[in-house]
Sequence to fold (223 residues):
Amino acid sequence: AQRVTQPEKLLSVFKGAPVELKCNYSYSGSPELFWYVQYSRQRLQLLLRHISRESIKGFTADLNKGETSFHLKKPFAQEEDSAMYYCALGAAGNTPLVFGKGTRLSVIA
Amino acid sequence: KAGVTQTPRYLIKTRGQQVTLSCSPISGHRSVSWYQQTPGQGLQFLFEYFSETQRNKGNFPGRFSGRQFSNSRSEMNVSTLELGDSALYLCASSLGQGTYNEQFFGPGTRLTVL
Fold:
C-alpha cells in the first residue's frame, strides 16, 4: 500500500533562513508526487508537482527515487510562506491521492 | 470560473443523528473526491465519484456514504454520528480521474458532533 510520511508536525524558521519540508513515500511503482498548501483561512491548493519541474513562489522539490523522498525547499523563507503543507502521492491507474499528515511551517520575523 | 462550493459551511449535530453535506464542482469537472481532515490524521480519503459512479473508496465505515448526480454535484451522508466524526470535510473536483488531473478543493464543511 502507498504511504506518505511527513516527519515534522511543526517547523519554525526565521525569515530569510532556508526551509526544507521533508516528505518520504512508500510505493513500489513509478510515483506522481505533489505538494499542496493551505494558507490561513484559505482552501487547500496545489503548490507544485514533480512532473512539471517548476519553481512556484520560490519553492522547488526534487523527486529522489533512491531515497523515496520529495522534500520541499526554499532558499529564503518569507513570512507569507507560513502555512500548512501536505505532501501527496499518486499511484498508477485511477487510484486516489494519498496525503501525508502535513507540516505546519511558521516563519518568524 | 467559480470554484468548488460546499454547503453548509458549518454544522453542529448530536451523537446518533445523521448529516448530509453537499459539493458543487467546478463547471465541466466530472470527478469529485471527498476527504476528512483532522489535526491528528491530516487528510484521509473517503471516496471518489466519476460520472455518477463511485470509483474509489477509503477505509471508512459504512456509515459514510455518498452519491453523485448527473450534473456532477455530489452529496456525502454520515449516519449515526459519533463524536469522532467531528472534522473538516473537504470536497475536491477535477476534470477527470487519475492523479494527473489537478484537484481543486472547496472551503470545506466544519462538522461538530456533540
Observations:
- The interface with chain B takes residues 32, 34, 43-46, 49, 51, 86, 90-91, 93-102 of chain A (CB under 8 Å).
- Chain A is about 0% helix and 45% strand.
- The CA atoms of residues 35 and 87 of chain A lie 5 Å apart.
